[in-house]
Amino acid sequence: xxxxxxxxxxxxxxxxxxxxxxxxxxxxxxxxxxxxxxxxxxxxxxxxxxxxxxxxxxxxxxxxxxxxxxxxxxxxxxxxxxxxxxxxxxxxxxxxx
Length: 97
Prior knowledge:
The chain is 81% helix and 0% strand. By secondary structure, the protein is mostly helical.
């Protein structure tokens, strides 16, 4: 790639690592807030899968909508996760994903 290409690649790689770390922190924050809202003290495997799915959906929605819909997107993601957790805890039947 050459020196310039190597430096650019190193920058891209560094940014990708930061993005992954930030995504992880975002998922943890969504998990904590959603769990608190639903009254769930310790998430189980199902809950963690829902959080992963909703985290990715929220990130996608944020990328598409930008800052104009940031707050609405985050509130929706948190509410969706809390509803899923509450349904799981109540034993309500779920539709297949």
